């Protein structure tokens, strides 16, 4: 029997039953990577010798009667997580030789749960792109169409899952970096509530791996089934033992409902600042129809939905002002000159991003205050609805675009070009207020490319969108291997 595309849940059951060993699963996964990854380039840092040793240890532990959540299951890890003895570069050539001495807290949790780490998956330069390529490891291709991107920045992890390179992976999300690759590659991902999963050790190379709280950024699970997302989130979730974990213990509430017919869902498929492509609209419609057919209450409008245009503006301001905080002064002078050329009436997202690069602390605080207003608006919304269904990006996976200046790239939406980074408005809808969001497969485009949607849930009620993802998978199907 071939095991590579089995769910982690099924693999765990097979391991418990003695139908397969971890060594056999690991050897099969390694053989598949060695055979197929030359064309995809998803696993950029293999760690096969230690994986085989870990698999042997897992089999011995099971023989002693141990049974941990991921015992013996092969997984991959995004390159940006520290793993002792392996390089952490974030795709930056100047850090190609940096090797951390300690595991990231999430890698430690994977290993404590018994997972077998096959290696690390590819990322874009500095994790700063919606694609996955860098000078050290090269370009990762989309398994459905090698001429297209798998997304970013967790593109290597999504491509690895689509190719059967391990049952699970972990990634990070600041600008859709879990959800967009899942959407482009036809797999599942979950962006947890901000602060739910400790992030220590997912840090730029050479910087101290301190237990800091990051604004907007989270780490989370990726899988080929919705239930596997929950399995892995339960391993990842919880405060850092060096800070909040000293006094806090995690107790996530159960999903609001177990039956599809009990869910109240708001469906959105259009954004005031960016059109949604036909293929993605079709995916949203497929999910909406499945929800309605299953008895869920489905609405298309709500007067309490926070303003989407302002939400996108606030997100871009918070994202960009944080990203450029360490720019050298000479770069700031150049940016200031460009910003001075903008018309005062220019409210485009490109102008918003440029102005945000020059934010003062006072301006950031004002923006943060507006974020709190939006968070309260979402609390009001989730008193009436359980989940919001909406796009992740306006299109399926797009062709590789390695233009050296990302600000000059364009995204084609049904034949009309738009600024490249405008496509982040949908990812930012959940990221700006820190809400959980689950990416689920929702069909195929006319060209046969995967299309996904996101299920946004109430803060710290991550199990609610995850449960709806499971119910949707039962009705419309989920991951299918690339042809």
Outline:
The protein is α/β, with parallel strands linked by helices.
Description:
The protein is an alpha/beta fold. Among the domains are: 8-260, Amidase signature (AS) enzymes, CATH 3.90.1300; 307-369, no CATH class. The chain is 36% helix and 14% strand. It has helices at 8-17, 22-40, 48-63, 105-112, 155-162, 179-185, 226-236, 278-293, 308-323, 329-340, 349-356, 361-384, 425-431, 463-476, and strands spanning 43-46, 74-78, 116-121, 133-134, 138-139, 168-173, 188-191, 218-223, 264-267, 297-299, 387-391, 410-413, 416-419, 437-444, 450-456. It has 14 helices and 15 strands. The chain starts with 7 loop residues before the first helix and ends in a 7-residue tail after the last helix. The strands form three sheets. Strands 1-3-2-6-8-7-14-15-11-9-10 form an eleven-stranded mixed sheet, with helices on both faces. A two-stranded antiparallel ribbon has the order 4-5. The chain is globular, with a radius of gyration of 21 Å.
